[in-house]
Amino acid sequence: MSDSLPDRRYRFGVFEADAVTGELRRQGMRVRLNAQPFQVLSMLLERPGEVLTREEISRQLWPDGTFVDYEHGVNSAVNRIREALGDAASNPRFVETLARRGYRFVAPVERIAPSETVSDAVSSEEQTAVAETKARSRILATPEELPKISHPVVQTLFLLLQLMYLGFYVGALANLAEIEDLFSVLPRASQAFALLVLTAAVLIPVRAFVLCAVLFHAPRAGEKLLKLWRFLLPLDVLWSLSPFLLLHHMSFGLALSCTALLVYSPFAQRSLVLMGAGGAEHEISAVLQK
């Protein structure tokens, strides 16, 4: 790389990049990024707000005389950067594409002074160790641990799960006589029946809210959905027993198998929210840190 400064570290958002060691970190945890994409990222960070042409980038990546399809190579490197940062070309928060011109880093960038670099070296290592320890002991997934999937796919899967639950609630309320007959053998049949009716009636508008929030891209939808998930979790686990409401139409074994799958459903919903079903990553990260 052309710059010969002894220390070049940059901070942008929740990320830090060290051009000397070639490391990208997110809140102290290292993010995997190969050498060439990191070199492109360093060039963009060195000139935030300025347009870097593909020709400029290719001259840095491949010396004269190297035969390479530089258009494909540069595009591939930028795509790897976006994957590492959780960015998207359609709605860039960090790397913007300018058609037929090149790329520009659009987020504010802070250059970390050499003195701060030295004083932060030990604390950074300590933060990384603590963060990695927490990650190993954590049961629920974080956004960094989930695969990068296109937003339409994530949104479609999330909406289908909401429609599934709506089907459970409406189907149960439409067959109360049959369900009451099933519940008659239970020790506290009347209380169980009342709980079913009450939760179904309450959860129908809740699911309608969730559907509308995701379909119409409501502001801070991801943050709201993660908070709502804590309330919905016990109810979703309870409604995972809904296949047993169809015992007049299916075997006990099939109902048990369906219930086992449905127990995972609320955790799948949470993962889909973290993958972008309901909002921007920085909003979701703020909720997870609380």
Automatic annotation (TrEMBL):
In what residue span(s) does the OmpR/PhoB-type domain sit?
A: 7-107
Protein keywords:
DNA-binding, Membrane, Transmembrane, Transmembrane helix
| GO terms assigned for molecular function | DNA binding
Gene3D superfamilies for this protein: Winged helix-like DNA-binding domain superfamily/Winged helix DNA-binding domain
**Which SUPFAM superfamilies does the record associate with it?**
C-terminal effector domain of the bipartite response regulators
Q: Which GO terms describe its biological process?
A: phosphorelay signal transduction system; regulation of DNA-templated transcription
Q: Which SMART domains match?
A: Trans_reg_C
Instruction: Output the superkingdom of the source species.
Output: Bacteria
Q: Which residues bind DNA?
A: 7-107
List the InterPro entries hit by this protein, alphabetically. Answer: OmpR/PhoB-type_DNA-bd, Sig_transdc_resp-reg_C-effctor, WH-like_DNA-bd_sf
Key word Transcription present in the record? no
Q: Where are the transmembrane segments?
A: 153-172, 192-216, 228-246
Protein's UniProt name: Transcriptional regulator, CadC
